[in-house]
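Input record (Table S2, row 865):
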Amino acid sequence: MRSKTTKSSALLGMAALTTFVVLASHSCVSENLNISARGTATVQQPIRANVVSLLVDEEGLEEKRCSVNQRQCKRCGKGLTGDKRCELCEVGFFLSRNACIPMNKCNVLGDTVLGDTQRNDVARTRSPGCEAVSFYDNGHCVLHDHTALKTMGYKQGVQSARLDCKPIEDPRGDGCRASYCEKCGEGDRECLQCRGNFTRTDKGKCRYENKEEADWPDIRPPTFGSESEIIKNEVARIVSLMTIEEKIGQMTMARQKWIKPSEMKSNAVGSYLLGGDDDIGDNSAQAWARLSDRYWNATTEVGDAIIHPLFGIDAIHGHSHLSTSTLFPHNIGLGCTNDPKLIRKIGKITAKELVATGVDWTFAPTHAVAQNWRWGRTYESFSQIPANVERLAKEFVIGLQGAVNETFLGVENVLGCAKHFGGDGGTEGGIDQGNFRGTLQELKDTHLSPYFGSIEAGVQTIMASFNSWNGVKTHGNEFLLRDVLKRRLGFTGLVVGDWNGHAQVDGCSPVQCDQAVEAGVDIMMLSKRDWKGYLQNTTSSAKKGSITAEKIDDSVTRILTVKALYGAMTTPALRAAGIKERASPSQRPGAGQSSVLEAAEHRETAREAVRKSLVMLKNGAKGATGKPVPLSTTGKYLVTGRCADDIGLQNGGWTRDWQGSPNYPNRFFGKGESIYKGIRGGMDGGGSATLYQMVDGEFPDLSSYDALIFCTGEDPYAEYFGDRHWPASMDFGQFRVGAADAGFLEEVRTKYPSLTIVTLLSSGRPLYVNKEINLSDAFIAVWLPGTQGGGVADVLFGKNDLVGKLSFQWALDPCVTMEYNGAHGNDPPFTNLMLPIGYGLTYDDESLMPTLNVDHLPQCDQERR
Ligand SMILES: *[C@@H]1O[C@H](CO)[C@@H](O)[C@H](O)[C@H]1NC(C)=O
Ligand SMILES: *[C@@H]1O[C@H](CO)[C@@H](O)[C@H](O)[C@H]1NC(C)=O
Ligand SMILES: *[C@@H]1O[C@H](CO)[C@@H](O)[C@H](O)[C@H]1NC(C)=O
Ligand SMILES: *[C@@H]1O[C@H](CO)[C@@H](O)[C@H](O)[C@H]1NC(C)=O
Ligand SMILES: *[C@@H]1O[C@H](CO)[C@@H](O)[C@H](O)[C@H]1NC(C)=O
Ligand SMILES: *[C@@H]1O[C@H](CO)[C@@H](O)[C@H](O)[C@H]1NC(C)=O
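Output record (2-acetamido-2-deoxy-beta-D-glucopyranose complex):
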């Protein structure tokens, strides 16, 4: 294994002529590609390729093939699914949905291609010329441009093709790496002259200047009474005693799999995380708490201060990294409940479950205001309307952290994180990590305003966004992070970077990014194994003075202030003032107890959230008197469809695995309940519900049933992989899974014209489903309900009425675009193109569904309004 590492490293930097292309056939986004030709793709403008290399395992971990047909899997995972889970891929492949996907990169400048087994890193290089399957976006090559893939003739399901790349040296001819630098100095490190709206700093860097203003409200972050004074003084005293190494250590977050507690301690590293696909090998609360204990003890001691590391994780819809915990509907569904109290309660429960497993910090809730449902993270957005996001996200924060002046950061609370600042939901074309184009006022009105409420509620951390604003990456945007967030908005907490987000800043790499520190990212989130390289490089920059000392002190001050408030830093003076040190993870409330994750009260709250999030789009024909729902519990029903009895599917992305867990058995989710199981449980009137598993070429006999309950929906996806770029249609019938399901419904309707059909659509965003709506007597959007599918039965059988209202417009046309910022507010017109925000039928309502256009357009040629 070691020799392999050496060999692949040796290949880096060499110009070679081959590479391969990437198409994640497993990922839902590529399923709809209808690509005709197979085979070798011709590239119009050959460019240079480096041989791609992954960081292979240097620890000498046992090499083992997976039993599944994954030849490129280097190491298999443990856990309930045995060795079917690939954890590490061979060189030249990246991990996607537990499978190894070939990857390619042509990199014009000859940089080391960013490649890791984490897909996130693979997706971009820093070159102004990209190979044909990727597109150029603000200094990065981004993969998965469906249009390009299509024109290149990829066949559906074909995962790779060859792409020949030819070298181009130094395209601009001046040796500059950073696009904002007009003239480079020696060694490509110093910029002599900056471009456009960048001005040169005395350190030879370029700082983005923005002369614009916006009307900022008067935001008042909480003060913590007498405590603030003591904390302020103690933190200042400790910071003055710290070495540069200790300071930079505190400003570094490494991945748990790459750092041992002893290394945390010897390098003063201040925080660690588990990545979306990382695994500690044991799915129990006890194992988690025990692990956390070891890291908590890896303290940094400065003078009389003891500083503990923080353990962070993406708990996106509940403690979603642990499949046995209580998982709630994703934010889009919670937005439809429009129930602030409920959302606060969900935040509180999430915190309790995190505390039980030793986690200190969740990178949630998302404050994005998605403006384009093509964005794969739309489901992380509470609403299309900024004010709704602000109102609900704030409650989530209060639930997690506790209310200021009540039990703020009490023993059952964790640190929350408002993300991603700013403009993540407003990128052009809904492209993940893309560019928001607009004025500061526009940015503020739609994408920054949701943070105001959370800042006032005392949110302690805010995550910088991957996206750019007018072409400048947020991680490197000092104006946005320092001038706006920290100064104008008065944010006193800390700014954490996203997953290697700093590496996307022009001129940066994963192991070097002074610009991001200067810009105001207080903690860099390092996904790569080489956290030490980052630490050393940044320390040496700090020593040389190429990072401003005051800025480092500002960052460390923020970090230690958050830690003191949370109880992860203590000194005798703090203790004397009654500011308590937090107990070791295994001594916290409920620590190590799986009963906390399974608590009936938690499950009941999740179920309540499910039933309140469902939005009924149709209930009978317009003008007709009979209403198909509620169904009687004395009836005889056939329940079928891919989402009927699959807890992984109904949970969507960010569920155990980054891109979701569709292949896990239901038992993997502990006390979770599928939609079908809930329906069966709801049949308390003597009726029956039979599950029918669809099999190709077979068709059920429906003649003796009173109704068909049909559960269809999208495959899980998360950031990036869930994007559907223009001009792909939003027609669910064009998704592979959607086409099959629409066909099934059509056949049922033809064979049993008078059978009642109730369709439940599980999706992360509004989809064009006119045909499916038309074929159904009742149609309910269930979003991504989480583990407590029983909430669906609660409304289906009339135990509870439907109260959910759309938090996003719903497209009645496959190519319609959302109205910017819900331009019509909460009461937009009902049109043939769109159902308005706030739409949702109760049992008392007459169906309003207009006559729908049911043409299936192959792809979008123009946007409609
Ligand atoms: C999809 O493929 C089929 C069969 O190859 C072809 O007839 C059809 O025109 C294609 N549709 C599009 C939109 O490319
Ligand atoms: C520079 O900033 C001004 C507004 O301050 C803006 O109008 C202009 O487009 C910006 N130029 C570039 C190249 O970003
Ligand atoms: C909390 O209490 C302090 C001191 O009593 C007060 O100054 C502060 O305004 C309060 N903060 C909030 C958010 O209520
Ligand atoms: C952590 O430190 C505490 C206090 O020093 C000690 O009691 C405990 O055993 C340590 N735990 C681990 C896992 O090292
Ligand atoms: C940073 O660290 C890495 C080692 O991890 C090293 O290869 C690199 O040259 C260092 N310096 C810069 C400026 O990136
Ligand atoms: C459903 O489609 C048929 C034609 O296929 C049309 O006649 C009917 O009006 C449609 N119904 C609705 C509610 O759109």
